[in-house]
Amino acid sequence: MLTPSINAVRFPEVSLQAPNWVNGNESPSSGARREVISPYTGKRIGTFNESTTAEIDVAIQSASVAFPKWKSTPIKERCQVLFHFRQILLRDLEELSHSVSRESGKTLSEARAGLLKGVEVIEFALSLQNRDEGGKLEVSRGVFCEYRREPLGVVAGITPFNFPAMVPLWMIPIAIALGNCFVWKPSDKTPLTSLPIAKALKEAGLPDGVFTVIQGGKEAVEAILDHPKVAAVGFVGSTPVARAVYTRGTQHGKRILALGGAKNHIILMPDADPDMAAKGIADSFTGCAGQRCMAASVLLAVGDTDRLIQGIVEKASQIRISEDMGAIITVESKKKIESAIQRAKEEGATLPLDGRTPNVPSEYVQGNWLAPTIIDHVQRDSHAAKEELFGPVLSIIRVKNLSEAIAIENSSEFGNAASVFTNTGAIAERVAREAQVGMVGVNIGVPVPREPFSFGGICDSKFGQGDITGPSSLDFWSNLKKITTKWSMSTDHNWMS
Fold first, then answer.
1. How far is CA 37 from CA 103, 108, 319, 395, 444, in A?
2. 489 burial via Cβ count (<10 Å: 0-12, 13-18, 19+)
3. Active-site residue flag, 293
4. 7 near 111, Cβ under 8 Å?
5. Rounded to an integer, what distance in angstroms lies between the CA atom of residue 136 and that of residue 70?
6. Is the separation of the CB atoms in 37 and 44 below 8 Å?
7. Phi, psi (5° rounding) for residue 304?
8. SS in 3 state form for 230-289?
9. Taking the CB of residue 111, how many other CB atoms lie within 10 A of it?
């Protein structure tokens, strides 16, 4: 057994609580009591109570009461709150990183990176105070048209376990900067980080009622989707749940943007830089233990790439459990991934790297650990090639040429992301042009756009219109009001006279 490093995740001496946050204060809920289990240790680190329908109604009604005053607050004043919020998150970065790590299984460096990506979205939201959304234009003599961006009211975000802080921070800053009141339903697997974020917003000066946290599971999601005061809902999770959220929410006339799962492909060309490919691809499928929608899960190896694949195997084999890669969220998820690996082997694939017996630090032996695994000679229609395994597993499909690789990529029901590793510009441009995905990487294994470029896939990776971040997110969280004004008669005649 290994010994945990001095940079190991800190665990609390007492069980933590994850209450609701309503009208600027902690608000205990009275539903079923649930435990929060750390993927690192397999032990309880906290508890929460599910919210009842009545408690959810009270919380949303409280947000609705706060909306008119927040809407009328000038955007520069709203952004001042976000500026202070940004400072507090950076001040408390280490403690928040430990919170994210211990409940989600991420490494500390991954938790920090996620929080800093969230800070980038706050910085984009801060820029909204200086954006010109069309201004005012004299469209005819004496006639003026202008845009005014207006908030929707009470909006909600339903977020996944794998990014307890980053994904909420994709939604919260933009939504409240635009003048909405925001209701957040964290994952029932990772609810603990929600309280320090709520407290940080209050410390930053956010008025009571503008930000609300509701704890719970499926029933809480349904109550939010059904509530008449909720105008829009952003969701990130698996494709089946994203589809269900979109269907239920739109049936109630709500604006829904639901991001689902992925089966991302990386095309590996024979001319790829060996070092860049080895590191980029290994980091892609092992980062966050493969539990992210941007992870590479299929490698389409074009032609003679054996030496490049060997480099990926060597790089992945050097990854240290708990240091370089975190844990799987639950025991059930770990068993599901292990079963998929065994199934691939029984179907004739080979395992140049089998991570089912990882070397784990002594304090973490009861945790949910799986080392990097590479499955080679996978058949294109097999389970390992088509299903989202959501773990540190890379399936390699051997193909003859680029056309075959692109055809396999585009046959997927998902359309989240794809990458190509090559030193040929024409090949990179062809993949960028022909890949039917929302995000493309060239010699980048995790092609997450940086702000202000937006995040979002297509096909079954997204239900709804627009993206969750960037400029297109503004139209999701607000309406554009168009105003036409005339104050004096004009001597000429035109269609507006």
1. 7, 17, 24, 29, 33
2. exposed
3. yes
4. no
5. 24
6. yes
7. -85, 95
8. EEEEEEECCHHHHHHHHHHHHHCCCEEEEECCCCEEEEECCCCCHHHHHHHHHHHHHHHH
9. 30
- Residue in 79, 181, 288, 293 annotated catalytic: 293
- Which pLDDT score, from 0 to 100, does residue 134 have? 65
Q: How far apart are CA 424 and CA 233, in angstroms?
A: 42
Q: What is the 3-state secondary structure (H, E, C) of 56-107?
A: HHHHHHHHHHHHHHHHHCCHHHHHHHHHHHHHHHHHCHHHHHHHHHHHHCCC
Asked if 220 contacts 233 with a C-beta cutoff of 8 angstroms, the reply is no
Judged against a pLDDT cut of 80, whether residue 412 lies above it is answered with yes
In the chain the domains, ranked by start, together with CATH numbers, are 16-260+461-481 (3.40.605.10), 264-442 (3.40.309.10)
pLDDT, one tens digit per residue, over 421-451 is: 999 999 999 999 999 999 999 999 999 999 9
Rounded to whole angstroms, the Cα distance separating 348 from 286 reads: 23
Question: 436 in helix, strand or coil?
Answer: coil
Cis omega (within 30 of 0) on the bond before 447?
no
Among residues 415, 14, 19, which one has the least CA distance to residue 214?
19
State the average pLDDT for the chain: 95
- Segment 206-221, tens digit of pLDDT: 999 999 999 999 999 9
Torsion, Cα 418 419 425 431, to 10 degrees, reads -20
* Residue 384: HSE in the Cβ half-sphere, 13 Å Cα cutoff: 31
What six digits make up the tokens of 429?
A: 């441009």
Tokens of 463: 């239900």
- The rounded radius of gyration (Å) of the Cα atoms in the chain is 24
Residue type, 159: T
In angstroms, the CA 485 to CA 483 distance is 6
